[in-house]
Amino acid sequence: MRTILSFLTLAAALSGCTTDDPGNDRNGGDGRDVMPPRDVEQEKKRVLECLRTFEGRDPDVMDAACEELREIGAPVVSEEILGNVERFGNPRTRSAAHERLRWMSKVVRMLLLLESTDKEDWKHCYAGMVALGPEATLRFVGVLILKMNSNPAWCRAMLLDVCNEVGPVAQNGVLEALNYTPEVKDPAGPLTARTMDDKTREGIASVLIFLKDPPASRIRESALNGPIGTRRALAKLLAANRAKDKVAGTEAAPGWAIDILVEQLSRDPAWQVRADAADSLGRCGDLLHAAPALILALKDKDHWVRRSSCIALGQFGAAAKDSVGPMIEMLKGLDAEKLEGNPRRELDNAATDALRKITGKRFNEPSTFLTWWDEQQRK
Q1: Strand partners, 244
Q2: 254-271 pLDDT, tens per residue?
Q3: b or e along 119-155 (b: 16 or more beta carbons within 10 Å of the residue's beta carbon)?
Q4: How far apart are CA 288 and CA 248, in angstroms?
Q5: Distance set, CA 341 to CA 100, 338, 345, 347, 348 (Å)
Q6: What is the DSSP letter of 21?
Q7: What pLDDT is recorded for position 53?
Q8: Quick check: 246 pLDDT over 70?
Q9: Disulfide engineering: 102 pairs with which of 54, 79, 119, 296, CB 3.0-4.6 Å?
Q10: Separation CA 257–CA 255 (nearest Å)
Q11: pTM score, two decimals?
């Protein structure tokens, strides 16, 4: 099965020719003779009218449509459509090409409903694309991802529904998008750095985390080895889906999510991801599993990760009493480390606030906590 990136080409068949991209023109990308918007829209309508002829059975009409599609050509007509137009001209592949073009027509007509501002049209597109099979479903997922920034609420809700309803087919599309790195791929491809920005990655990452049965092992792979934007998105969100423990009466993130956060905090090469993971561990609701990694992170080489770890431990209050000693030791080592300026102030303030919450002492300066701790150790 082809990937979601190739599936997106047909989805863009009637919207892929823009007026601000010098690569989308009649002269092979040299920036000249770009079609005006009005002409582009007319060409799109011609493509759709041609495709609809394949939903009928009149061979003469279909042959004429093929000629017209060749005349319009790329980039308005996708390579996928043009390839099947050529196959339609060969008697040996005509029948298969006819079925394919007929299917494409239905897909494009369904996807055009996503241009509407009426939610019922979107729901109709959802039902139609799922009914057209796994490949159409994956195309639908791809277009929802492309539209995530312009309509996050509807796109996220529909992605969640289709991933729950259809399962792995849709989930695979979301995971592939999360693991896609536009900067090392074709910058003119369907997914770009602009479409796959932090907001989009967080939106589609939250879909996976809030599924009825999240694909934990594949989420872990993305969280540990995906692009930094994806790793950060998952680090921020993994503790968001918390369930209530009926026996303890407390809420906590699932164990698999906490395990991933612990791994991120312990081994991710990017300090931003480690800091995000520490923040989430402070909200995970499970001190037993979070504390060892957070205490170890008090020795992280990056001050921001240590700051986040202090804040996270402070959120557990008195239950995090085992972190007091390591936090004091961290403060003692700051002079030797020669950490100065804002980084020093940020770390001092975070540690002092955390120590107040954990110990119940109302000291306002790190030095006061150091003196207090030394006195406690002498007793």
Answers
A1: 251
A2: 999 999 999 999 999 999
A3: eeebeebbebbbebeebbbbbbbbbbbbbbeebbebb
A4: 13
A5: 65, 10, 6, 10, 11
A6: -
A7: 96
A8: no
A9: 54
A10: 5
A11: 0.86
Rounded distance, CA 152 to CA 203, Å? 7
Q: Which of 352, 371, 255 has its CA nearest to residue 311?
A: 352
Going by CATH, does the domain composed of 238-379 fall within 1.25.10.10? yes
**Nearest C-alpha neighbor of 205 from the set 152, 266, 139:** 152
Q: What share of the chain is helix, strand, coil (3-state, %, to 5)?
A: 70, 0, 30
Q: Report pLDDT digits (tens) over 164-220.
A: 999 999 999 999 999 988 765 555 566 777 788 899 999 999 999 999 999 999 999
Q: Which one-letter amino acid corresponds to residue 353?
A: D
CA 137 centroid distance within chain: 18
Which residue spans of the chain are classified as CATH 1.25.10.10? 238-379
Cα atoms found within 13 Å of the Cα of residue 19, Cβ hemisphere only: 7
